[in-house]
Amino acid sequence: DDLLTGGGGDDVYQYTDSATDGHDTIADFLDGNDTIDLTALFDALGGTNTVVSTFDSGSGNTTLEISTDGGTSTVAGFSITLAGVEVGSGGDLTAAELLTHINGADGVVEA
């Protein structure tokens, strides 16, 4: 479980292994600047490359999980929290906009 801070400029957060990358929090994810690269992770897992997005209005954070079956179930032990980012209708990013910031994913499903 890591707290990641990219700082100013364009940042790429790269994930390669769902078993070792754990539950991370990105403290300063910026729309238009930052990218989450899941290409190697999805290549290793196979299946349908889907990100499941859940917004928690209490914390103001969005949690991303990964799914290889189109969003029905998620891979255990892996999540990325975008601190202070609301994904969804009326939020900071729509699911479609979030998808443009995720390399390797075929779709984003809101839970």
Structural description of this entry:
By secondary structure, the chain is of the alpha/beta class. Helices cover 14% and strands 32% of the residues. The protein has three helices and nine strands. The chain has helices at residues 18-21, 39-45, 95-99; strands spanning 3-4, 12-14, 23-26, 35-37, 50-56, 61-67, 79-82, 102-103, 107-110. The chain has a six-stranded mixed β-sheet with strand order 1-3-7-6-5-9. A hairpin with a 4-residue loop joins strand 5 and strand 6. The longest helix is centred in the middle third of the chain and has 7 residues, at 39-45. It is globular and about 30 Å long.
In short:
The chain is α/β, with parallel strands linked by helices and 111 residues long. 14% of the residues lie in helices and 32% in strands.
What is the beta-strand fraction?
25-35%
Helicity level = 10-25%
Low-pLDDT segments, ≥5 res:
none
Helix/sheet category: alpha/beta
Q: What does the average pLDDT come to?
A: 90
Described by its quaternary structure, the protein is single chain
Computed CA radius of gyration, to the nearest angstrom: 13 Å
Major beta sheet summary: 6 strands, mixed
* Cα end-to-end separation: 22 Å
Shape: globular
